[in-house]
Sequence to fold (701 residues):
Amino acid sequence: MPLKLKELSKKEDLFTHGHRMCSGCGTPIIIKQVLMASDYPVIASNATGCLEVSSCISLYTAWKIPWIHSAFENAAATIAGVETMYSALKKQGKIDREIKFVAFGGDGGTYDIGLQSLSGAMERGHDMLYICYDNGAYMNTGIQRSSATPFGADTTTSPAGSVVPGKMQQRKNLTKIMAAHDIPYVAQASPAHWQDLIRKVKKAFEIKGPKFMNVISPCNRGWRSRTDDAIELSRLAVDTCYWPLYEVENGITKVTYTPRNKKPIVDFLKPQGRFKHLFSPENEWILKKLQEDIDKEWDELLRASSIEK
Amino acid sequence: MARVVAVTGNEASAEALRQINPDVCAAYPITPQTDLMQRFSGFVSDGKVDTEVILVESEHSAMSACIGASAAGGRVVTATSSQGLALMWEMLFIAAGMRLPVVMPLVNRALSAPLNIHGDHSDSMGARDSGWIQLYSENAQEAYDNTIQAFRIAEHMDIRLPVMVCFDGFIISHSIERVEYLEDTEVKNFVGEYKQLYPLLDIDNPKSYGPLILPDLYMEYKRAQHEVMTKVKDVVLDVASEFKKLSKREYGLFEAYRLDDADIALVILSSAAGTAKDVIDEFRGRGIKAGLLKPRLFRPFPYEEVADTLKKVRAISVMDRADSFGGYGPLFMEISSALLHIKERPLLINKIYGLGGRDFLPGHAEMVLNELMEIVETGKFKTIKEYIGVRE
Fold:
């Protein structure tokens, strides 16, 4: 059944206005879409990061759901504990409601420091959904590189200088790593494609066991872009195939959106100040490499998707 | 009716956990704790407890999962040792800061480097400022009794703080001793039902755990944590007196052994106190007024009560099974602080012993007591801090 905005707009906002996320940030849009997607009560854990420090300060919270933040690297382990207590009390007949469990982490708290606890929780099979909002750096700490930062990007710890032209390592492909855990559901989504994102979250909540979703989350502070372009940039990420939309369900890979006209990567890079230096002649090779890598990955994904159809 | 058994400390502690039947247990194996959690997992596999066990990928995740489970609303337990406790470090403060009554048997073991799997107190002493309540046990019986009492202390509505039940690695965890078990129903009734105050699983009344607190309020939170700690002593004593009715075994904030009229005394924690008591008896037999103080509640530390008990002693050796490099031993620092406000103070010396499982022998206690006698006679001491049982 197609999702209708009219219907969704009647749902209560579970992540409210009044949070302190930067204006133009992609993350609150994602959180709203995720919480809107659930037909069940949801309990969330949150890794330390932008979302956490700006959504629950002192006596104020933007969360209308039970929420827990414990540390940076353990959103998965923390929600695993909550979910296990739920199982324990359910078994004892002390609770009978159907509740869903979700963890939110940024790319630093997920790709890097939180990877172990995420991997552990997935392997143990907790009935939970982990959502990574990937803005491609440690944005909260002052735009420092993470393992999700794209090749060539200018960050405060991988600055584009006269000798080194930005980050010289490739992005870690976390979605693939998570799929390699052979968990029932892994997906990539973008807030620009809200129907696709909500459908994926809905599907994830219906599946028992561990689920992982990686969502691109534009950050105008770190990306050095305009404050009103989060949706436009996340759409360009998809249309350039920098951020393909796909899912891996029970090992079956399926591309969920194929751009009619695949755009060149420069369309995604150009509006962002963090890639400005790449457009000088001496860095042409970086643009070329980025395009080659994306093409290769997209081809591989299409092949995996078509073979298994 | 009590059952008398011959068991190890780990076995006794696991038995206490079986009788308590917590809702959730998250654990990661580490020597010498491993055997404790193996036994508990056995109870789970045989259906002897209802506990949901989370066999995590690290101690950091063990404590993280305990935090999640405890906030969710229920009784939570884990256990660890040494490096495991060190890996939990960050989360120890979070469990305490969130007022989550997690109970954790800590099988005391040395910290690396160099790697050493044997018993000393450097793990728990390092964690003394994490906001956890710490109880120390002399033998398997005390490990068992303290584990049971820990739940009542942790979950007391005035307290709601995590509790560490410390007992010496191998010396207690792996040695077979005589232990009196309580009946299952006695333990069950003693610990009672636990209801979390603000459970996350109460979907209709959503709560937020772990907000960001800025400089305008952070100190108030920390002071509140200290204030809660000041109430712990009374709860510990109340729980102990109830426990006595059940078990006939007496517990306090510390044990004062032959201290009433003592001229010289040792202050010593855990298993080594047992060895030292025999030597104290021997000295008493020779007409020498020797005594011993064995702290049980180390955090919060009962300064006034300890000072009151030790103030008339003339010379004291504080025995530390942990070191503070470049400083005095941690227990020595507490005892010094406790006695600071007394005008006529006992003379104090500090001995570091038994690190990394080095034996503490009756001869060592005898040597220290002889030194104390000399200090009393001359009114002088040679060195404040000294290592005993070290190969020179």
